[in-house]
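Anyone opening a protein record will find just a pair of labelled lines. The record below illustrates this layout.
***
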Amino acid sequence: MNKTYFPSIHNLEKYWYIVDAADQRLGRLASEIAMVLRGKNKPNYTPNIDTGDFVIVVNAEKLNVTGKKRSQKLYRRHSGRPGGMKTETFEKLQGRIPERIIEKAVKGMLPKNSLGKKLFTKLKVYAGPSHPHEAQKPQQLNIKTIPGVENQCK
């Protein structure tokens, strides 16, 4: 008789992690953050339960992309009105609202249901190096991306 593992409420400890996005690649950073938010790095991971942790991302304005994505990658939003489509490049959006780039990348890697919406609320992104979550005593989360790739791609 097989039984599905279901973690009890006492086993679901939530931790806070801090990630420095300076000189990190967007996609690799977002996939690691999504994995921690989902809880896939824990032994008690269950797909239909929120077993993930909180993630604070600082220095979102210093995020890197490779190739020509800085000028060619487009971000679209729609007002809901006819002709209300707005598009802007990565470079313009990073100058205006750098937090939104990481938020959109991570949100696209989470489940598209109510669980995904709940997981997304545990992501905190800040443009600069400071954040208001010192009371939670966040631990440093080291994400290893490939350094120096933008020089090889040109």
Strands lie at 16-20, 54-58, 74-78, 85-89, 123-125, 139-140.
